[in-house]
Amino acid sequence: MQKYPWIKWLLVLLVLIVIGVALRVVLAWRDLAGIARVVDIATVALVSIWCYYGLYLRRDRLWANTQRSYLAVSNVVWVLAYIFYVSDRITWTVNVMGIWSLVAIGIFGVWLIQVVVAIGHPIAGVARTVILQATRLYVVWFVIAAVVLMLILLPGSLDPAERLNYRVSFYLVWSMRLATFMLSIMTAVLGCYTICSDLTGRQMFMLASKPVGRFQYLFGKWLGLMLLNIVLCTIVGVGVWLGARLLSQEPPPRPITQEAVNNYVITHNDVLAARVTAYPVPADVAQLGSMIKSEFDRLKAEFPGMYPDKIEDLDEARLNELRGKAIATWHTIAPLGSRAYYFDGFKPLADAYANWIARQRELKAQYDQLIAERRNDEALAVRRQAEQIPPPSQALKLRLKPKYSNNSGDGMLHMVLRISGQVMQLDPMQNDTVREIPIPLAAIDQNGRLEVMIANANVANREATHKSNIVFDPYEDIEMLYSAGTFEGNIVRGMIVHWVRLGFLAMLSITAGTMLGFPMACLTSIFVYSVAVFNSFAAESLANYTSLDLKGKSKWDVFMAVLQGIWDSIASGDFVALLKLVAKLIGDSTLLIVPSFGYYNSTPLIADGRMVPVELVTESIFFVGFIASGFCLLVGWLIFRRKELARVTV
C-alpha cells in the first residue's frame, strides 16, 4: 500500500460508489424517491471530490491537469442534466447526456488507441504519428463535434406530422449517410495529407534514417487511420442508435388514436429490427421446368429456324433468358386466376409454436383436473402459470407490392389472399404500393412450409374484376419477412461494413499520396471512391451505352464482343461507335477493379429493418478489406519503394 498509494485511493473510490449504489437500490425498493434523489446527489458529489483530491495529488503530471478539466466538464453536464430532469424536460436531459457521452467516447477512444500503439514496434510508431498528427490538427475533434451535432439535431428537423415509422427510417438513412460522408472526406484528406506532408516537409529524411521499411511505413499510416476510424465509427453507431431510440419513444399525440398505436408497433417491430427475407418457391420444381419448356415451344413456333429442336441444345445465355421469362410468368396472375407461392425454412418457428401449444394444453389439462378435484388454489396457480408463458415472439409478415399490367379506373387493386387454406380478408389497396400483412405462426405446417394463394379477383363483385394481370417483380414484390436478430446487432454489423469501406479509402488515399501532390491525391482518391459508391449505376449506364446486345452474357463474352466491335468500327470507319466502345472498355475495366459499394452498403438494410447478414460482413472484409485494399497497398509500395526521397546535389 505504501509503495502504491493509488491502490488505497482506488479502494476508497470503489467503496464510495458501492455504498451509494446500494443505498440507492434499497431506498428505491422502499419507495423513498425523495431520499434516493438526495443520496444520488451526495454520491456524485463525494465521488467527484475524491477524484479531484486524487488528481491534486498527481498535479505534477500533465495528464492529471487534462483529466481534471474533463471531470469539471462532466460535473457541469451532470448538473445541467439534473436541472432539466427536475424540470421534467426529459428530451433535453437525454440530449445533454447523449452529447457528452459521445464526446467522452471520442476522448477515451483516442486515448486508448494511443496506448495500444505505444508498444515500440515500427508499424505502431508510424500509426502513433498519424494519430498525434490528426489530434494536433484538430481534424478528429472537428469531425466528432460535427457528427455529434448532426446526430442530435437531425431528429428535430423532421416533420412531427409525418408517420413515426417514416421519420425513424428517414433518420436512419440520412444520419448514416451524412456521418459516413464526413468520415470519408476526413479519411481521404488525412490519408493524403499524412503522406504528402512527410514528403514535402522533409520528415521522411528522419524516418528513412530509422529501421522502418517502406512497406512498414505505408502499413503504419493505414493502421493509424483505421484505429481513428474505429473510434469515429463507434461514435456514429452509438449516436445513430441513441437518436433512433429517442425518436421512437416520443410521446404519441393526444388523444391517442389507433393509427398512432399502429405506427408505434410498426416502428419497433419493422424498423428497429433485424428481419430476414424469404422468397417464394414453386410447389414443385417441375412446375418451373414446364413453364420454361412452354416458353421454349412458343418461341420456337413464333420464330421458326431461330431455335434448335431440343431445349437441351440451347446455349447458356438463351436458357437463362427463358428461365427469367418463366419466373416472370410465374409471378403474373391472370384475371380471375390464382397462383400458389410456397415459403420454406420456418421449421424452428413451427417447432416453437407447437411446443407452446403443447405446453398450454398440458397446463389446461392440469387445470381441469384440479378444478374437478376442487383444489381451487392450485388450479389458480396453474392458470397464472399458463398466462405467464407468452407465445413465440417471432413475427411473420408477408410483404406484397402488386400492380396491374394496365391501370384500373379507380386506381385500386383487388385481390384475394388465402394462407394455408384460410381466406384472409383484404381491403382494396392502391395499385403499385407496399402492404405488409401479419401472418399467424399457426399457418406454418409441421415441415416449416407456408402456402400463400393469391387470386386476381374482386371478392365483393366477381364481375367487376379488372381485366388486367396482377404482376409481381421477382425477388422484390413478394417476400416473407421475420425477425432474426436485434436492432443493436444490426447497427454493429452495419458499422463494421462502413469501417471496412473506410479502410479501402484510407489505403487508396495513402497510395495516391505516394505518387501525387496533395490536391491531386485528394481529388483522385475521392473520385475513385465515388466510382465505387456509384458502381452499380455506372455499370448499368455502360451496359446501355453501346448498340451491342450484351444482355445475359458473361463478363468474358462482353469483353470479347466489345473488342470485336472495336475492330468492326475501325474497319467500317464508324468513329462514333469506336469512341463509345473504347469508353465502355475503359469503364468496364475500371469497374472491374473498383469494388461496388452499392452492394457493400448496409444503410438501406438498417433503415428498412432488414438484417445486415454476416455473409455481407465477411464478404466486405475479404473482397474490400483484403483484396481491394491489399491491391492498393501493393501498388503504393511498388511506387514508394522506387521513389527518390532526396537528390544528392554537388
Written description of the protein model:
By secondary structure, the protein is α+β, with helices and mostly antiparallel strands. The protein has 3 domains: 58-274 and 486-534 and 598-650, no CATH class; 285-330, no CATH class; 338-483, no CATH class. It is 64% helix and 8% strand. The strands form 4 sheets. It has a 4-stranded antiparallel beta sheet with strand order 1-13-4-10, with no helix packed on it.
Low-confidence stretches: none
Distance between the termini: 65 Å
Q: What strand line-up does the widest sheet have?
A: 1-13-4-10
**DSSP summary, beta strand count:** 13
Number of helices: 21
Class computed from helices, strands and strand pairing: alpha+beta
Number of domains: 3
Strand content: 5-15%
Instruction: Assign a percent range to the helix content.
Output: 55-70%
- Shape descriptor: flat
Computed CA radius of gyration, to the nearest angstrom = 32 Å
Mean pLDDT: 78
> What profile does the largest beta sheet have?
4 strands, antiparallel
